[in-house]
Amino acid sequence: MSHHNEHSWLLKVRNLTKIYGEPNERSVELTGPEFGTNICPDTDSIVACAGVSFDLYPGEVLGIVGESGSGKSTVVKLLYFDIEKTLGSAWLRPYGDGKSNILEASGQQKRYIRNHLMGTVYQNPRDGLNFSFSSGGNIAEKLIMAGHMHVGNIRGRASYLLDKTEVPVRRMDDPPAAFSGGMQQRVQIAKAIANNPPLLFLDEVTTGLDVSVQARVLDLIRELQQELGVAMIVVSHDLSVIRMLTDRTLVMKHGRVVEAGLTDQILQDPQHAYTQLLVSSLL
Amino acid sequence: MIENIKYKKSYNYAFIDESTKKEVRRKLLKAVAIPGYQVPYSSPEMPIARGWGTGGLHVTLALIGRNDIFKIIDQGSDASVNACNLREFVQAMTGCKVTYDTTEATLIQTRHRITEEELREDQLFVFQVPQPEPLRGVERYEYRTRQMHGEADYAKMWVSLYESFVRHGDIMLGAGYPVKVNGRYIMAPSPIPRWDIPNLHQAKTLYLFGAGREKRLYAVPPHTTVEPLEFEDVKFNIERFNGVTCSKTGYRRAFLDELFLDDGSKTFVINDSNFLDKMEHGESVHQFTNLYLQQLI
Amino acid sequence: MNIVEVHQLTKTFELHILNGKRITALNGIELVIEEGEIIGLTGKSGSGKSSLMKCLYRTYLASSGEILYSSQSGVIDLVKARDHEVLALRRSEIRYCSQFLSVIPRVSAVDVVAEPLMRTERNRDLARARARQLLEVLGLPVELWDAYPVTFSGGEQQRINVARAIISRPRLLLIDEPTASLDARTKDVVIGLIRDLKQDGTSVLCISHDEYTLGKMADRRLHLSGGHITSGLTATI
User: Fold this and answer.
1) Which helix (H) or strand (E) holds A236?
2) In a mutagenesis test of the C interface, which of A3, A93, A268, A272 is the best target, namely the one with the most C β-carbons within 10 Å?
3) Model confidence over C140-182: pLDDT tens digits?
4) Cβ A226–C122 below 8 Å, yes or no?
5) Is A192's Cβ below 8 Å from some Cβ in B?
6) Among residues A72, B241, C132, C219, which is most buried (max CB within 10 A)?
7) Interface pTM (ipTM) of the complex?
């Protein structure tokens, strides 16, 4: 008997597939970890990811780990609508009671989902922040898109969020370009949680930062997750980030999920050969 | 030799050929049907350069008829060089009567002002527009601004107003304050002063906007809701002219020009030249009223 | 009532990077834990004690067999259970305390101990208050409460480890060498805390090689050798 009601999932993803170029019917079967490539030998199309399926429950942190070309970033980019899918479906419980495929929603519906139900933190702050606005203005953008039209309240909420993400509130009206990399990431995090979304995407958020800065950002993410109970999908090539933040993990190679399981199980009892290789490479 | 007078004139009536007039009119109908929405149009070549009122001229010439009485103002003045040139051109091309009197005119073309006197249902009011896209300041790509209008995604516009308030203590837009038309599209009302913005709202007249250089037409039909963008706690207001009056008439409740005299001193005069004329000669005037004006003492 | 029933549990590791070498850690394990029992698990190193515990906690995926756990909402086979079900159980009912504290950097001792309560209650101040109570009982010096455990001695780390495992009063506690690095007085404190849990109905599976601890705590003992259970003694307290 299951402990959780089968209908209590937050995000359900089935057969998520993204192929660049002009594939034929065999493109998916001719690529993947057994073939050691993402590129279809017949058509030269690139199978960035294929057949990705998973469930995410409220408050859970799911990690997606893999090396370059694994498709891990593609999966989240598809889910927060930065790119269009080739095949597949995804359902988000708070949207239409989980009955509508969000990947087939209209532009306006997708925008609604992105503003109210999702938060995204990118590796490069320039992708997630508007550098011509102040950092407070970036957060205001998210709040305005959710219908808050009172400047005083907007500023109050923005300073609360910046304080929570350890950004000095007196720098609220400064543009992000004036901040260090770590602080830019923290502004991104503040913006991402502005509307209390149930789901947060974190795409290689600490890659490229100095180690001490990385540590501070990760600590913040973990604290926020504990306090807000928000579900997260964390993409990283770094297993130690996965170990620190996630409850469950998907291991991807050449666009496919090769192993999925509880994070401690993946790290201590890896089943797939590639996972064993990854884990043994942990410094 | 028998003379054929039909082809004596080298130009079609109102200069533009009939097919082009038809196209402009059809686009104007579409603009009226979707208040505030920018309709692309052919914007044909005119004997004046872009940036000198070709858009307004296109609308005027497509609509004007033999019985129309035409008035044209430039920043409120009938007598400025540009207004005079355009007036002479229209008169030469159409042979219709021209006037300085706001109440007498049936079709009025304007650059950057609405008249002080209230316009009627039987009048047409045509704006010359330099930049029809209200979002251009926050988004430079056309394909993105079109998408933003299509999805009513105006967050960037609002954030720019927020940033202005944060940086300067108020929204610092003087001319061409962005407005929301019929609760749907955000529109650039052409660079009219804040003073004129409330007169767009629930007006009796049909307002038409022509941007020749950018090739866009748009419209605000009569009795349409036009709201300036404002936050719940940061509101729109019009110019106040505190304690200042027109030096020629002593009148306070009209938009005033600030003039510098040769000795360096400042004086204020009513901007709308026809309105000023009428006030100076004690003629009766029927001015626009709106809530903002009523709040001025 | 049995809270855990293990049938024919086998665990074999297949190491692909060593050319598919297979290592069998557990072979056909049969065991039962009754509700409110404290069972001591003994055996030499390499006999499979930690592997058994990790299979129960689902850190290891059993190769075959059944692990039937009586949760608050029914019986569930942990071998076949889905990830999110296991996570839910770990959050509310089953706790595992490993032999050594896995140190999460830059988290103070208090917050390490408070963390399991944060998952259920989300009130940081309340969780911290309870954590401090426990640390006091365990005799961890006050100056260390806000310090980072990475610099602590083995005994100090072990006390934090135990505190974290028991703070949320689990239904099933899996604990590996709880008293190994402790002095006699602290050993008694830990044993007392675990017996307290038993009073509230917690069932405990405890790996220990310390005769003193087992003598004071265990209702029953199981001995593992070469992946098999070779004997089950009942100790009386």
Assistant:
1) strand A231-236
2) A3
3) 889 989 998 888 888 888 888 889 988 988 999 999 988 888 8
4) yes
5) no
6) A72
7) 0.87
